[in-house]
């Protein structure tokens, strides 16, 4: 097999029902210059065997096994075994559009100074299969060029499945930190943005389909203010960031980031049924970083009991059966 252009790195933990779709989406790529490194992170449900069945007969796909060490450690193990000049981090329960690698690769080729390219994605239901309609489309527009300041305020990516990074720039940035349990990808993208500009993919069609699973880290942790603290500490203790921004700009952007985190926490509290506490947190976030859109959403959040469920938008309650 010739040296691949793109290495798809896929950490996998207890995703036997889903990993076949991820593997099939790699095998269906219109750009065939890829390899896939799947790292089974101590799964207990036959994930590795499901991956082997889906990959049967394709030498571009390798499956590694390790004791459970977390998603960042699994990604780093996959990166160490990868040989491509570009990296894409496909979660094992998501899947790629057939032209994802071609579009991402073209965006990077067209912007030789860029360290990464990214673009649209879509959210799908937990039980969805390729071809099913998405729950919603995140088509952008996405900022390009130096996105550092924007990225510091909010994570612009669902995950690494709709981002293609140059291997050399990713290595310089230092990769994922295994010590972070939540926000580890956001912290990594910020260090990658310190290395150079990001390019964006043309068009509105999704590159990636992301399952909204009841057991996801976001669903479990985003309503807990303490969950954000380790990633925020890692981000803002970075001396390269302090040097790039200067003390005044850094302090201002950090306050906006903290307000954005609080908005997420408040929204997730509402979605989990903690109405009074969620509204309190949302009010504080809106006061710290007011905008017309945010104030309108805050007003809507206070009137949810009087609105039909279909109009609850970003504050819609999670189904009870999917709570964790």
Please write out the topology.
Layout: E1 6-12, H1 19-27, E2 34-41, H2 47-55, E3 61-66, H3 71-81, E4 86-89, E5 95-96, H4 100-109, E6 116-118, E7 121-125, E8 136-138, H5 148-153, E9 163-166, H6 167-173, H7 184-195, E10 198-200, E11 208-212, H8 217-221, H9 229-236, H10 239-245, H11 247-271, H12 275-288, H13 292-302
Parallel strand pairs: 1-2, 1-4, 2-3, 6-10, 7-11
Antiparallel strand pairs: 4-9, 5-11, 6-9, 7-8
Helix pairs in contact: 1-2, 6-7, 7-9, 10-11, 11-12, 12-13
The proportion of residues in beta strands is 15-25%
Q: Helical amount among residues, as a percent range?
A: 40-55%
Got a strand count?
11
Q: What assembly state would you assign to the polypeptide chains in this entry?
A: single chain
What features would you describe in this structure?
There is one protein chain. With 324 residues, the protein is α/β, with parallel strands linked by helices. It is 41% helix and 15% strand. The chain has 13 helices and eleven strands. It has a seven-stranded mixed sheet with strand order 3-2-1-4-9-6-10, sandwiched between helices. A four-stranded mixed sheet has the order 5-11-7-8. α1 (19-27) links the parallel β1 (6-12) and β2 (34-41). α12 packs antiparallel against α13 (292-302). The longest helix has 25 residues, at 247-271. The N and C termini lie far apart (44 Å). The mean pLDDT is 94.
List the keywords.
324 residues; alpha/beta; 41% helix
Can you summarize this structure?
By secondary structure, this protein is of the alpha/beta class. The chain is 41% helix and 15% strand. The strands form two sheets. It has a seven-stranded mixed β-sheet with strand order 3-2-1-4-9-6-10, with helices on both faces. The chain has a four-stranded mixed β-sheet with strand order 5-11-7-8.
């Amino acid at each position: 097999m010739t040296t691949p252009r793109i290495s798809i790195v896929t950490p996998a933990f207890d995703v036997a029902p889903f990993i076949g779709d991820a593997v099939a989406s790699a095998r269906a790529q219109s750009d065939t210059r890829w390899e896939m490194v799947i790292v089974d992170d101590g799964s207990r449900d036959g994930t590795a065997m499901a991956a082997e069945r889906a990959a049967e007969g394709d030498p571009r796909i390798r499956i590694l096994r390790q004791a459970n060490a977390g998603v960042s450690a699994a990604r780093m193990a996959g990166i160490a075994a990868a040989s491509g000049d570009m990296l894409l981090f496909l979660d094992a329960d998501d899947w790629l559009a057939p032209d994802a690698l071609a579009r991402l690769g073209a965006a990077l080729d067209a912007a030789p100074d860029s360290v990464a390219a990214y673009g649209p994605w879509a959210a799908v239901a937990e039980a969805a299969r390729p071809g099913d309609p998405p729950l919603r489309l995140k088509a952008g527009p996405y900022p390009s060029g130096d996105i550092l300041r924007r990225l510091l305020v909010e994570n612009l990516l669902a995950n690494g499945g709709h981002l293609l990074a140059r291997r050399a720039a990713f290595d310089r940035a230092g990769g994922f930190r295994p010590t972070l349990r939540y926000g580890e990808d956001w912290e990594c993208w910020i260090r990658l943005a310190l290395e150079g500009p990001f390019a964006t993919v043309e068009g509105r069609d999704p590159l990636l389909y992301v399952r909204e699973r009841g057991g996801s880290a976001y669903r479990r942790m985003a309503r807990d203010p303490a969950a954000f603290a380790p990633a925020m500490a890692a981000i803002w203790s970075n001396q390269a960031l302090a040097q790039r921004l200067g003390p005044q700009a850094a302090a201002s952007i950090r306050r906006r980031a903290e307000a954005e985190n609080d908005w997420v926490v408040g929204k997730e509290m509402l979605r989990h049924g903690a109405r009074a506490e969620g509204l309190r947190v949302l009010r504080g976030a809106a006061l710290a970083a007011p905008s017309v859109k945010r104030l309108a959403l805050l007003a809507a959040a206070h009137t949810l009991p009087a609105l039909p469920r279909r109009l609850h938008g970003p504050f819609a309650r999670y189904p009870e059966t999917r709570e964790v």
